[in-house]
Amino acid sequence: MKTDSDKDREIPFSSNSIRLSISQWIVVAVVCCAAVILIPRVWEKFNKFSPGQDYRQPYELSNDYWQYQRYCRLACMEYDTVVIGDSVVWGHYVSKDHTLSHYLSEQTGGQFANLGLDGIHPAAMEGLLRYYGKDIKNKNVILHFNPLWMSSPKHDLQTDKEFHFNHPELVAQFSPKIPCYKTSFSTKISYIVKRNIAFSNWVSHLNITGFDNAGMPQWTLENPYKNPFNALAVRLPDKDVYEKADITGQSDNKTRGNNFQWLHPEESLQWKFFQRSVRLLQERGNKIFVLVGPFNEHMLEGESRTDYINLKNKVELWLQQNDVDYFLPEPLPAEFYQDASHPISRGYEIIAEQLFENAVFKAFILP
Q1: Phi then psi for 220, rounded to 5 degrees?
Q2: pLDDT digit string (tens) for 150-180?
Q3: Residue ranges in the chain assigned as alpha helix (H)
Q4: How far, in Å, CA of 289 to CA of 186, rounded?
Q5: What is the number of other CB atoms lying within 10 angstroms of the CB of residue 158?
């Protein structure tokens, strides 16, 4: 039988061999917070990254927003003008030295940085700029608008049926509501947390570049005899991976007669997010020039062509009413398109030439 003195000597939570006092817990919290803040910064110091002329975010790192933010910071320090947009700006069917930014730089001695990201639609681009493009301020910004994102309710993310689109981490998680976006509440919260904690994005960067996008626990299970610390010696992709263009095909014959269901701008979710991107960049003191298209109008017939022309007119009117400089290039010859919106190399070169013949654009890039 236990005496009263024995009970007094009993230690609660006896399974814990070490118990911290309140002051010790405060020290632990401070150390952990410092580690979370400092580790990504220290990593940048030791993991050298020197993007050269015509650099673009590698295709394999399309979802690596920590790396995009890092490149964005360096590009804004080095270049006079940044070019932002989806795969048309990125250059889906051309090598990095045949993109729009390359041909623009060719005429100015290297003033343009390619900040395009493959698969980035306006709803995601607004999030990319808001959370990972904070260094884009007081710059010249060429902002690309691809009308393709308004070519159907599905592209505009307005279908009631769930639709898995590119870059869900970047879109508005709760408001404004995206009808086809039906991921779980916990997933949405995790995306919001990740946006605001650099350490979380850095861990994601390591998972993508060092652990085959699987994460360290899963990677160690799949590679039991490999040293995970060797995987941390991150090497960014150095091959310029892109889809090869079929320049022998006649795109106007292959795709003529497609039935595009163009949305009116006032009804379009993607257009609303593009407008938000313009305002966000303006609030940060940037000087903006919007490039609309180029879209392969050779694919359009009848009512689809009429609706597209009306859409362009309304987009142009909004840009004029909001004092945003812009350029709507004339359609390229059909053979210079690979599909609905992607030019081949010669198409990019022509657009760059047209821009430098445009008085508004020349005034835009002048100091």
Answers
A1: -65, -30
A2: 999 999 999 999 989 999 999 999 989 999 9
A3: 4-9, 22-46, 65-78, 87-90, 100-106, 122-132, 185-196, 198-210, 216-222, 228-231, 251-255, 269-283, 302-321, 345-356, 359-365
A4: 38
A5: 17
- Phi/psi of residue 287, nearest 5 degrees: -100, 120
**Per the structure block, which two tokens stand in for 187?**
């997933």
User: What Cα–Cα distance (Å) separates residue 142 from each residue in 2, 125, 262?
Assistant: 80, 14, 24
Paired tokens of 203: 């861990």
- Of the pLDDT bands very low, low, confident and very high (cuts 50, 70, 90), residue 231 is low
User: pTM for this structure?
Assistant: 0.87
How is residue 156 written in tokens?
């505009």
Q: Give me the amino acid identity at 27.
A: V
pLDDT at 181 exceeding the cut of 60: yes
Element (H, E) at 114: strand 112-114
Domains present along the chain, CATH in parentheses: 65-177+245-365 (3.40.50.1110)
Residue 292 has pLDDT above 50, yes or no: yes
| Planar angle of CA 129, 160, 272, nearest 5 degrees | 30
- Each residue's pLDDT tens digit, 186-201: 999 999 988 888 888 8
